[in-house]
Amino acid sequence: xxxxxxxxxxxxxxxxxxxxxxxxxxxxxxxxxxxxxxxxxxxxxxxxxxxxxxxxxxxxxxxxxxxxxxxxxxxxxxxxxxxxxxxxxxxxxxxxxxxxxxxxxxxxxxxxxxxxxxxxxxxxxxxxxxxxxxxxxxxxxxxxxxxxxxxxxxxxxxxxxxxxxxxxxxxxxxxxxxxxxxxxxxxxxxxxxxxxxxxxxxxxxxxxxxxxxxxxxxxxxxxxxxxxxxxxxxxxxxxxxxxxxxxxxxxxxxxxxxxxxxxxxxxxxxxxxxxxxxxxxxxxxxxxxxxxxxxxxxxxxxxxxxxxxxxxxxxxxxxxxxxxxxxxxxxxxxxxxxxxxxxxxxxxxxxxxxxxxxxxxxxxxxxxxxxxxxxxxxxxxxxxxxxxx
Length: 389
What we know:
This protein is mainly beta.
């Protein structure tokens, strides 16, 4: 189904990739964030799914994640990175034709793993929200206009927040913050009280070492619920939204060993979302079908490659059923599991990529209306592109 990989060199130890049209030619380009070289690589799409040799831009030390969002209202996506070692966020404004300004850096009060870019104060300008791992806070940097940002305002969370979701959970049309606290086995919910300010956290217990979060309405009441993959306790936690941005105690579901990431998508065409995890410790992916009212069936497991780190759910064979794609860190492969109906999947087909793939994105990069696979190969200092046949 997928052609042999095309490999494009990037910087040292790419941690993740983002895909967007950065030069307004209606072709998807790739931006990789390179944790080992403190840079981002921009690979412009040359057509037919091939890419021009990287252009690199310096960012802060040990960047861990990258987001592409227009932050200065010029209809061109800009680059925002979370820089772990330098305790900063880098913003690189797009000047047109896929060329970016040198970084503007904004200090935060500790180490960062991730960044979210969302308008939190209803001024139609996207703001920056970061979980600050080493200081047990989230930082909010409001967009001051023209792609510049104000100094951070911080709010306390649990210990070691690793990631955030910024979603309206109390139906007031302004987004709230959900922080995933790796060190205290909790999530923090901070409600937006207007003008980009937030209430004190409400903390909810989840499983051990929560690593990945999805915020999706799982019980069809038009209120987003929270689903967590807990790596050390080999469980997922489901916290139902009971109104006004408050949540029930967790319901726990057992899954295979060391779930590394979670996605919540309807895979059996019943219009209610199901849970899919990539389980690094057991070399599997788990599917938990939604039984209704926010309850889930016991997992069905499928073999993947060795130590899957990332999972994407996309229909890759045009049958209107979403399929599973995993990036398998220790086998240097991606696994594709085709959906054969009723939320069941074929055995994996594997495709070789570079060493130590850490993230996977599935998007059409050669304009044939078929999704292609893009992988960040941390050990190979490369990005792999597998074109759909």
